[in-house]
Amino acid sequence: MAVRVQHEPFDFGAEANAFAAGRSDAGAVVTFTGIVRDLARGDLDRMEIEHYPGMTERALGGIEAEARARWDLRDCLIIHRFGTMVPGDMIMMVATASPHRADAFQAAEFLMDYLKSRAPFWKKEYTRDGALWVDSKDADEAALGRWAKG
Amino acid sequence: MIEILYFAWVRERIGLPKERLETSAATVADLVEELKAREERYAAAFADLTALRVAVDQELTEFDAPLDGVREVAFFPPMTGG
């Protein structure tokens, strides 16, 4: 179980290998990586990600605990960066390990949906025309609905 | 004393990341009214509360949340992680 909030880049391959290595308790490992995407016009100079130190770790820890309560997970990893990044840079990753493929996939999706709109990060995009805070999307909020308990 | 934190465009509009305030506000909404009455930059930042989120002691909550015993209140726009 790990939550890491960091400025420095992470090595996705090394993290994924370390997470999956020597695992005889879980037959399924799912990973997801988020990458800074250029704008449609191709003019994104950089992205800055601000966060709320303290609350970020608490929120991610809470989301992870919820995932572990819902699915049969043997391990879980969340890494999320803050600071300045350029198109192509990796922003974040999640990894889940479970005896069952469905649990690993669903838990990874749940983690992604929740950390998109419930973890205190804010993205600002810089182009030669200026800077704009990225708006939250209604679709991201709606995505949480499918995890509502009946 | 309550520590008030601002993030993203709320921080930019108000012009500072945090401040400490002696307040008798009973709820977050009362605190917002108190801040809005101070200066135009606060009134501008808090003009549309539907565009804002609030956390009390680092937990997301609603604007009617009580402030009794609270140490830290944070205001920010909807989050855009991932």
Automatic annotation (TrEMBL), chain A:
EC numbers listed for it are 2.8.1.12
Q: Does the keyword Mitochondrion apply?
A: no
Question: What is a single molecular function from GO for this protein?
Answer: molybdopterin synthase activity
Keywords (A to Z) from UniProt: Molybdenum cofactor biosynthesis, Transferase
Question: What InterPro entries would the database entry show?
Answer: MoaE_sf (IPR036563), Mopterin_biosynth_MoaE (IPR003448)
Gene Ontology biological process terms from the UniProt entry: Mo-molybdopterin cofactor biosynthetic process
Family classification: Belongs to the MoaE family.
Assembly notes: Heterotetramer of 2 MoaD subunits and 2 MoaE subunits. Also stable as homodimer. The enzyme changes between these two forms during catalysis.
Q: What is this protein called?
A: Molybdopterin synthase catalytic subunit
- Source species, please? Actibacterium naphthalenivorans
TrEMBL record, chain B:
What is the protein name stated in its UniProt record? Molybdopterin synthase sulfur carrier subunit
The reply on keyword Nucleotide-binding is yes
Q: Which Pfam families match?
A: ThiS
PANTHER family linked: MOLYBDOPTERIN SYNTHASE SULFUR CARRIER SUBUNIT
Its transmembrane ranges are none
Give the molecular function GO annotations: nucleotide binding
Q: Species name for this entry?
A: Actibacterium naphthalenivorans
**What is a single cellular component term in the Gene Ontology annotation?**
molybdopterin adenylyltransferase complex
Q: Per the record's keyword annotation, is Magnesium included, yes or no?
A: no
